[in-house]
């Protein structure tokens, strides 16, 4: 699985239950301007799932925060801080969990149309190539027959053989 790392967004794991987005923001703001803080909720309990994401405006700030906060303690829990991988949902063309699965339906339809057009053009090209090859074969055969006629015109023996072949058929 070769996924592109998001250099501005950090994954923060090992969060204590009492940590919320405000506390997480306050813990990471000393390292630079923060664009966004998210703590995904468990649908059943409506509590965060012990991890969150902090997105910085600058990559350098994110790197500094990761260097300083990985292994640090917050509310009695040791944090794990890494660069975040893109959020994925199964079947999503774009792969972003924030988008509904049907968000890429238009681009999928366009790609399907382009694929069908490409297949149609390839089929037309194949037919045209086959027709050109057949025409070339006929031309070559005519040229060979013309050469044979030229050869037999000067050779009385060859003319007699060609005449005999015509009478037998």
TrEMBL record:
SUPFAM superfamilies: RNA-binding domain, RBD (SSF54928). Keywords: RNA-binding. Residues 136-156 have a biased composition (Basic and acidic residues). Gene3D superfamilies: 3.30.70.330. CDD domains: RRM_PPIE. Signal peptide: none annotated. One of its GO terms (molecular function) is RNA binding. This is RRM domain-containing protein.
């Amino acid at each position: 699985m070769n996924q592109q790392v998001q250099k501005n967004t950090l994954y923060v794991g090992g969060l204590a239950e009492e940590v919320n987005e405000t506390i997480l923001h306050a813990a990471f703001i000393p390292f630079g301007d923060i664009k966004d803080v998210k703590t995904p909720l468990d649908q059943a309990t409506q509590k965060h799932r012990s991890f969150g994401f902090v997105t910085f405006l600058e990559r350098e700030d994110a790197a500094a925060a990761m260097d300083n906060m990985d292994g640090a303690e917050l509310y009695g829990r040791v944090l794990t801080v890494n660069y975040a991988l893109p959020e994925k949902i199964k079947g999503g063309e774009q792969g972003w969990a924030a988008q509904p699965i049907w968000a890429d339906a238009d681009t999928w339809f366009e790609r399907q149309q382009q694929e069908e057009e490409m297949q149609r053009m390839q089929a037309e090209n194949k037919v045209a190539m086959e027709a050109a090859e057949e025409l070339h074969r006929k031309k070559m055969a005519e040229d060979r027959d013309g050469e044979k006629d030229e050869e037999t015109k000067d050779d009385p023996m060859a003319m007699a053989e060609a005449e005999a072949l015509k009478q037998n058929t």
